[in-house]
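Onboarding guide, step 5: your first structure request.
Type a short instruction followed by the sequence, for example:

Predict the 3D structure of this protein.
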Amino acid sequence: MQITKAALASLIDHTLLKPDAKPDDIVLLCNEAKHFKFGAVCVNPCCVSIAGNELAGSSIGVCSVIGFPLGASEPSTKAFEAAVAVQSGATELDVVINIGFLKGGLFELMKADLAGVIQCARRESPGTIIKIILETCLLSDSEKIKVCKLAVDLGANFVKTSTGWSKSGATISDVALLKQSVGNSIGVKASGGIRDLSSVLAMIDAGATRIGTSSGLSIINELAE
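The system replies with structure tokens like these:
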């Protein structure tokens, strides 16, 4: 497929979630995002205010992660974390499902966990974009489909493949399944292990409408070459 540099950049969540990321690293991330006009930056909750200050007045989103990377925080903790992130300047939240609840047949508890996060975030800012992280490498296809349906029902904006911290990341088959499951109702974010242009184009071909990667600069430069 063919895509312009500007169009590709607009799909990328320029990501830095390393535990040793320093404030200066976040400032650099934001400057890179402004230069290349990435869709958003994605940072840990403690770095949201830094990113928000750096990106003030721009069209670039400030994304943060909730319950990351395991999804196993107590539900009220995840909801509080979401509210504080939005108060600090986050415009987008990537929320990890409680995988143990889902695998253990506690679907209603998993649903309530996600609903609490969404309600608290949108109470602070109704326009908050919510992406639900499935961690697809740990789920069966039927579980993936079930979470996709729930994400649509709860009013999420995206389903997302992976945290990038588990056994494996995004696959073309999973992106295609998620896209088939949500149709045009919401978007699909492919994330985890996406490091080159060919992988990005394959994910977009399979149905991804957003790409999460820490390799945004090399991917954009690869397209320019």
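Each response can be followed by summary notes, for example: The radius of gyration is 16 Å.
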